[in-house]
Amino acid sequence: MKKRLGILIISVFILCTFLSGCGYEYKELDLRGEYSRELEGTTLTVYNWGEYISDGADDTIDVNREFEKITGIKVNYLTFESNETMYSQVKNGGVNYDIVIPSDYMIERMLKEDMLAEIDTSALSNYDLIDQKYKNIFFDPENKYSVPFNVGMVGVIYNSKHIQTIDNSLNVLWDEKYKDMVLNFNNPRDAFMTAQILLDIDLNTENKKDWEKAAELLKKGKANLQAYVMDEVYGKMETGEASIAPYYAGDYLTMVETNPDLKFFYPKEGTNIFIDSACILKNAKNKQAAMMYLNFL
Predict the structure, then answer these.
(1) Which of 44, 64, 79, 237 could link 289 by a cystine bridge, Cβ 3.0 to 4.6 Å?
(2) What's the domain range around 89?
(3) What is the helix (H) or strand (E) element at residue 76, kind and residue range?
(4) Does residue 5 sit within a domain?
């Protein structure tokens, strides 16, 4: 989220445990906006990246509990580890989600497939607080279907205890001296990015031959990898089981708290910037509650 900045809510079970009273103290929030209790008793299902929201740990705000306290709306908070997992679950229709928080390219895809509801941003009293440079982006040029939630960049995390010198290049993923020490993304957007950057290919190219070149480079590097990962990167890098991993900058800040030997660099060749935005699904059952939640975020 890309998981990322914030503390993981592993499941609804854990959220319910918090709700049953394990010591979280409500914060005195200086709210900008009004929140009614007219939808008290409604259940709102939110589907977000893991490691992507504050849950009350380490004296932080428990975002979902505070929203529940103010509005009486129960938040059924579920997490995913990749855009592709989220898309598959929503498309499958096994659970009726109200809010999802995909990345830019996935929002574009979901819009083309008519999966998202329009959002009246004029009804969000806090919308003006979002930096203008993250609005009117290619995937939603008129800001009709998404509200920016987080922005970030991909860098490379490495264990300085195992690797004393490093070239600050994505080439480390293919360097045979690091064989079985290296991880790569288990999602196509970011995994392909590592190859495209090295090949100086536009990350948004529509040329099939460009994608084939990147695919060949990824195949070549597969033998060097220990594993393809998403949130598993935490355990592997924090314990030293793996030594190199391209991942999201915010997640590095979480990992280094556990393992201070971890270091980080942005590749000298360049990297990608992502914007994750909150969307309301077209088949959402609780759109009014969803709007209230977006304003609270």
Answers:
(1) 44
(2) 12-151+276-296
(3) strand 74-80
(4) no
DSSP reduced 3-state for 43: strand
Q: Using CA atoms, how far apart are residues 222 and 226, in angstroms rounded to an integer?
A: 9
Contact 47, 79 (CB under 8 A): yes
Query: Looking at residues 45-50, what average pLDDT do you find?
Result: 96
Q: Is residue 77 part of a domain?
A: yes
The whole-model pTM stands at 0.86
3-state secondary structure (DSSP) of residue 152: strand
**pLDDT for 108-133, tens place per residue?**
999 999 999 999 999 999 999 999 99
129 Cβ neighbours under 8 A, 6+ residues apart: 32
Residue 124: which CATH number?
3.40.190.10
142-152 pLDDT, tens digit each: 999 999 999 99
DSSP per-residue letters across 95-151: S--SEE--BHHHHHHHHHTT-B----GGG-TTGGGS-GGGSS-TTSTTSSS-EEEEE
Amino acid sitting at position 230: M
Contact 189, 87 (CB under 8 A): no
